[in-house]
Amino acid sequence: MKREALALASVLAAVAACRGEAQKADATAPPVQAASASAGASLCAAHQALDTMDQRQAVPLLPMMANHQKQMMRDHLVSVQGIADGLARNDFAAIETAAKKSGCSHMGTGAPGFTEQAITFHKSADAIADAARSKDRDAVVRGLAATLATCVGCHAKWKQQIVDDGTWARVSAGSPARE
Ligand code: HEC
Fold it and tell me: Distance from the CA of 27 to the center of ligand 1, in angstroms?
């Protein structure tokens, strides 16, 4: 219950900030800036529309953290591609290298449950590296299937929520900073 309340509060804070910015700009800006402020407001509305459609739970992140998380995600995709490629060529050294590339990022502060899913994912990627070291093809395939299941499970549940410094300070208060 508390988790949902926290996630909802962070969504509402971000939405309120978006609205506040648009109104402030509209009231005070000269005509040229007012035009771009109304473009800003419409961009805001577009983001809000997406946010309403996307019913997944929010992981609050500062822009820099969100960007870093997406970079790591693209690396994860490179990693599973490398594992599949290694399997196709029976190249266990390549599989091990690719499996070890899944860098670690637990940016789940303010989203209880997210970090735990990240840890499960990394354990399952480690199991692939172990299986590759012992040249156990079946265990690599099982490990890849299990790892892909953790990718799918996490993506089904969570979405990024970009927040400002003030919101971040509120949602991360009391949680140890984790990365
Ligand atoms: C602990 C949770 C978690 C796990 C595990 C996870 N992801 Fe993600 N991933 C996310 C989140 C959150 C996003 C952002 C989704 C959003 O906001 O729409 C994301 C986004 C992505 C993106 C889009 C990146 C971009 O540039 O927009 C890719 C690709 C991706 N993940 C690949 C993977 C792959 C491949 C795996 C498994 C090998 C994986 N992820 C495992 C949470 C996770």
Answer: 39
Give me ligand 1 centre to Cα 99, in Å: 16
Q: Is the pLDDT of residue 93 over 90?
A: yes
Q: What's the rounded Cα separation, in Å, for the pair 68 and 176?
A: 19
What is the Cα 77 distance to its own chain's centre?
13
| 148/26 Cα distance (integer angstroms) | 47
Among 151, 157, 159, 179, residue to substitute to test ligand 1 (most atoms within 8 Å of Cβ): 151
- Read off the pLDDT of residues 14-48 as tens digits, 9 standing for 90 and up: 455 565 454 444 455 566 666 778 888 899 999 99
Contact 103, 122 (CB under 8 A): no
Question: Which amino acid, residue 18?
Answer: C
Distance 35 CA to ligand 1 centre (A): 36
What is the per-residue pLDDT for 70?
95
